[in-house]
Design goal:
392 residues, mainly beta, Methylamine Dehydrogenase, Chain H, 5-stranded antiparallel sheet, 1% helix
């Protein structure tokens, strides 16, 4: 289901915040520690910064106006925020889906550093503009025009547009999730198909590996990849499926392109459209976007195998405060990531907070007593991230 509650031909989920190894650094006590939201406001968009406390609690710090317009909904896996943690360039990039621009905000000053747009035909006005980056380039997925815009990162959190690349799914689906590792960009199309691109020279060049996922084929279209993650060593791409249960798929990409995915069914909670790996890669966190839970699965970084770990209870406020779960973000860049934050789509929206414990092959997920926190600046929250970002 589309996050606005209206049926759509293709469904999607929100993807995660990305930065390359060269631009990701360990968290420093001198750096600000924020949870960040793209508020996707239809009458004036903004990016809101919440300071993360020592116990994982959140304090509203600043609302930065983007001077553009959002759409208040769209594809879950279209991640509207990307973070850069590079010396002298600590930035939040946020997409304005309705007006088509991407702004850069300096994390140290919380001031807008620049704004850039793609070509005149690039548009994300129907279901959003997703962002992913590798430190040198930022890539924007325009869901209406089905193009990937390439932007070169400039000093002062600004961007310069390079060009755009047309894309399309095997069933004519629209681009949904994106993830980057080194020179490899992996995308989902929300129609059962996936593809990878070589980005060594900047603009994406297809690896000619576009294929329908195993889950899509086996389920006769009931399950299909939307969210995507890539492991720290670049060996595996992990896909979170929109489905009637919790389904993820794994592809070995160690040779530089996609291989046939392996399917793992992890429970009955509806959809796994947003996923993120813990910093130590022992746990794969899953936002059951069309359900009401967060699921954690054990992940083996050496074999790529996934097994069921644990699930939270029903998160507070479902139906009464929010309608869907969306993207995930983590408190810390070590171990299992500390607190799990989850975007809760509503009008206004909320931020769920879940603690995790893991030991001896068992795990537990518990919602904070103070959860959810009102995200009053957003009437359609789908994308969140934390700064400093995870290093992969």
């Amino acid at each position: 289901m589309h996050a606005s509650g209206r049926p759509r031909l293709s469904l999607a989920a929100a993807i995660l915040v990305w930065a390359c190894v060269a631009s990701g650094f360990a968290q420093s006590t001198s750096q600000p520690h924020y949870l960040i939201t793209n508020d996707d406001g239809v009458f004036g968009n903004s990016v809101t910064f919440y300071t993360i406390g020592a116990n994982g609690g959140l304090t509203l710090t600043s609302q930065v106006q983007t001077a553009g317009l959002g759409i208040g909904g769209g594809f879950f896996s279209t991640n509207r925020i990307s973070l850069l943690n590079s010396t002298g360039n600590e930035c939040v990039y946020a997409a304005d889906a309705a007006t088509g621009d991407i702004i850069g905000i300096d994390v140290t000053t919380l001031a807008v550093g620049g704004s850039a747009s793609g070509s005149t035909t690039d548009s994300g006005a129907t279901n959003g503009i997703g962002l992913a980056m590798n430190g040198r380039y930022l890539y924007a997925s325009y869901t209406a025009s089905n193009t990937i815009g390439t932007f070169q990162v400039q000093p002062g959190c600004s961007l310069s547009f390079v060009n755009d690349t047309p894309v399309v799914g095997l069933q004519a689906g629209f681009i949904a999730g994106m993830a980057i590792h080194g020179n490899l960009l992996v995308v989902t199309y929300g129609d059962g198909s996936i593809e990878s691109f070589n980005i060594a020279s900047g603009p994406p060049v297809s690896n000619n590996d576009e294929q329908n996922s195993t889950g899509y084929t086996q389920s006769l279209g009931v399950a299909y990849p939307n969210g995507v993650e890539i492991t720290k060593d670049g060996r595996y791409a992990i896909f979170g499926d929109t489905s009637t249960s919790t389904v993820v798929e794994v592809s070995d990409i160690s040779a530089g392109s996609l291989t046939t995915t392996v399917v793992y069914t992890l429970g009955t909670a509806v959809s796994a459209s947003n996923i993120t790996l813990s910093p130590d890669e022992t746990l794969l966190y899953i936002s059951n976007t069309q359900g009401d839970k967060v699921t954690a699965a054990f992940f083996n970084e050496y074999t790529g195998k996934v097994s069921m770990g644990c699930a939270s209870g029903s998160l507070r406020g479902v139906s009464s405060k929010w309608s869907y779960l969306a993207s995930l973000a983590l408190d810390t860049n070590a171990g299992t990531g500390g607190t799990i934050y989850v975007a809760e789509f509503g009008a206004p929206s909320y931020i769920g907070m879940v603690s995790v414990s893991s030991s001896a092959g068992k795990c537990t997920l518990r919602e904070f007593p103070s959860s959810p926190l009102s995200a009053a600046n957003s009437s359609g929250l789908l994308s969140i991230g934390t700064f400093p970002p995870r290093s992969f």
